[in-house]
Automatic annotation (TrEMBL):
ATP binds at R56, S144, S152, R201, Y241. NCBIfam families: L-threonylcarbamoyladenylate synthase (TIGR00057). It is found in: Cytoplasm. It comes from Alienimonas californiensis. L-threonine binds at T33, H65, R122, A142, S182. Its main location: cytoplasm. This is Threonylcarbamoyl-AMP synthase. One of its GO terms (molecular function) is ATP binding.
Length: 334
């Protein structure tokens, strides 16, 4: 049995989904990044349902979504303070795939933030998602709408397949346009007392774009968080976004041995695709934006084949390629 699926293009469906959120239920909805599993962020009982549906450990915080602009609920509902750099980044990249980790307001339950004094917040660019947030009138805590640690969902069908009846309602907004998660930026106090931004999770807004917006280079953290400890950012554990099939990473498809029993995920067309049991090419022209949009769906298709193993070719280490390599590294971790 699966959740009811309604079209996000239908205003009546938006209204129904908003009512589910206000009443403490769970709604899966499409954004420009991936599909989220939403609950009223100010209702601890509703938030607990998110953790139960995903089998998500409570040390991993959730991202709170707001409609942005002058629409309620506003940022002050969940955030106690906005550093100058955070304000500049919000003005430049919201609505969009950027999450800011900020001091939390008292109204935000500890369950949302893993007991930390900070809360992760973003304003999505997806108009159906923002319509839902405006109609709900409450901040919505929403991690990816899948079982914890698995491949992120980029279509409503992925959500229905993975979570089934654990969700009250799925709003189908079509395939996600960006296709990978938001960039997460936190703020640390340096020796001089200034609050400096740090990329805690690479994502759809590149480090280069962030640096250009602030006029300086921003540090990017690519290490793994300690398992079991409260996480400042979601998606920072060593193993995440992972298929069921064992995955290895290579720099060139020609490195793969015994390819006849292996599925290949490639950025560009490989020189000899016929060597592989299956091959998914993400961009014939080397377009990282195109590759990101199809990344998770392609990985899902390969994983569904039941092959003994998969291999993926690493992406160029710049722009969106840095975020895609981060996802590959965590997906391949043992």
């Amino acid at each position: 049995m699966t959740a009811r699926l309604l079209s996000a293009a239908d205003p009546a469906a938006i209204g129904e989904a908003a009512a589910v959120l206000r009443e403490g239920g769970l709604v899966a909805f499409g954004t420009e990044t991936v599909y989220g599993l939403g609950a009223n962020a100010l209702d601890p009982t509703a938030v607990a349902k998110v953790f139960a549906a995903k089998d998500r450990p409570r040390f991993d915080p959730l991202i709170v979504h707001l409609p942005g602009g002058d629409d309620a609920p506003g940022l002050a509902t969940v955030v106690a303070d906005l550093p100058d750099d955070a304000r500049a980044l919000a003005e430049r990249f919201w609505p969009g795939p950027l999450t800011l980790v900020l001091p939390k307001a008292a109204a935000v339950p500890d369950l949302v933030t893993a007991g930390l004094g900070s809360v992760a917040v973003r304003v999505p660019a997806s108009e159906p998602a923002r319509a839902l947030l405006r109609a709900a009138g409450v901040p919505v805590a929403a991690p990816s709408a899948n079982r914890f640690g698995g491949i992120s969902p980029t279509t409503a069908a992925h959500v229905a397949e993975g979570l089934g009846e654990a969700v009250d309602l799925i709003l189908d907004a079509g395939p996600c346009e960006v296709g990978i998660e938001s960039t997460v930026v936190g703020f640390e106090t340096d020796a001089g007392g200034a609050r400096r931004p740090v990329v805690l999770r690479p994502g759809a807004v590149t480090a280069e774009a962030l640096g250009a917006a602030l006029g300086r280079t921003i540090e990017v953290r690519t290490g793994n968080a300690d398992p079991g400890a409260a996480q400042t950012s979601p998606g920072s554990l060593s193993r995440h976004y992972a298929p069921r099939t064992p995955l290895t990473l290579v720099d060139d498809a020609e490195e793969v041995e015994a390819a006849g029993a292996c599925g290949l995920l490639a950025f560009l067309p490989p020189p000899r695709p016929e060597r592989f049991a299956a091959c998914e090419t993400l961009s014939a022209t080397g377009d990282l934006t195109e590759a990101a949009a199809g990344f998770y769906a392609a990985l899902r298709r390969l994983d569904a084949l039941g092959l003994p193993r998969l291999a993926a070719v690493r992406f160029p280490p710049h722009g969106l390629g840095a975020a895609l390599n981060d996802r590959l590294r965590r997906a391949a971790a043992g």
